[in-house]
Design brief:
12 strands, globular, 279 residues, Topoisomerase II, Yope Regulator, Chain: A, isomerase activity, six-stranded mixed β-sheet, alpha+beta, DUF5926
């Protein structure tokens, strides 16, 4: 290979993927990827690559690591990592690609990945993504480290976790307790414009809550999807039925394509004014 060709290849490796707002679009359970990336403290799910190999996706890894190849050869990838080289899906795919090439027991460092395959290119389209929420980080060392000092460090880390539960009656809704307050953050995959219209219709009718003592306090946008947030005093179990009933009301409102009334437009504007952009 000539010098010009080598320089050309080197330059190509430095190219960045274009920014992608909905970086997890097309992956199984897109909304759960967003939740684990942004706010669920300790959770895992297993994906299957097109090659048939499985990879464990973790909300967080020790030391905020990007990935690790376990002593048994299993690949773990951490979602809550400080990185963004344009397309987060490409960044995470690079972690998987790197892990496939290194020896067991080694961490994967996040460096600029350049242009290349995305997660959507690596994962089997029929792969599942079933989330398991953990009470702590004990799964980090299960079967590999039973030293007392490790247990002490884990106990300290576990104290920082806000109790979190994924509701079973609806998709991608996570109850959490933060001190005296309790919240439900529900990642919704409905398109933003009709979703805001539907929420405005429900708000005008007083049907935007999850029952008595609950309040829709706002929403934020993450990776191209809206995440409404409710505040309440109820337990996660007590929200299962109200959440299912709300989803039915929301679906009915989404099916209503009539023009918004002036009152509904005002409600929609109020919803927009409190929107926060995360990614």
């Amino acid at each position: 290979m000539g010098k010009k060709s080598r320089l050309k290849n080197k330059a190509a490796k430095k190219e960045r993927m274009p920014f992608v707002a909905r970086t997890f679009e097309g992956l199984p359970n897109e909304a759960d990827w967003i939740a684990l990336r942004e706010f669920v403290p300790s959770a895992t799910a297993t994906i299957t690559l097109a090659s048939g190999q499985t990879v464990r996706i973790c909300s967080l890894l020790p030391g905020n690591g990007a990935g690790i190849v376990r002593p048994d050869g299993e690949i773990w990838v951490g979602l809550q990592v400080a990185h963004n080289f344009g397309d987060i899906s490409r960044d995470l795919a690079y972690v998987v690609e790197t892990a496939l090439e290194i020896e067991p027991g080694q961490p994967v460092r996040m460096t600029e990945p350049g242009v290349g395959p995305r997660l959507q290119d690596l994962i089997d389209p029929s792969s599942s993504f079933d989330v398991a929420v953990h009470e702590g980080f004990d799964y980090w060392v299960e079967g590999t480290d039973d030293r007392p000092e490790t247990a002490e460090l884990l106990a300290e880390a576990n104290e920082t976790i806000a109790p979190t539960v994924r509701l079973e009656s609806v998709d991608s809704a996570y109850w959490t307790e933060m001190g005296p307050q309790r919240f439900l953050r529900w990642v919704m995959t409905d398109d933003e414009t009709p979703l805001l219209d539907a929420l405005a219709r429900l708000k005008v009718r007083g049907e935007e809550t999850l029952g008595e003592g609950t309040k829709l306090i706002g929403h934020f946008r993450a990776h191209g999807r809206l995440v409404p947030v409710w505040e309440f005093e109820a337990s996660a179990a007590d929200l299962e039925k109200p959440a299912l009933e709300f989803r039915a009301r929301l679906d009915a409102a989404l099916a209503d394509d009539s023009p918004l009334t002036s009152e509904q437009r005002s409600a929609r504007a109020a919803l927009l004014s409190g929107q926060v952009q995360i990614r």
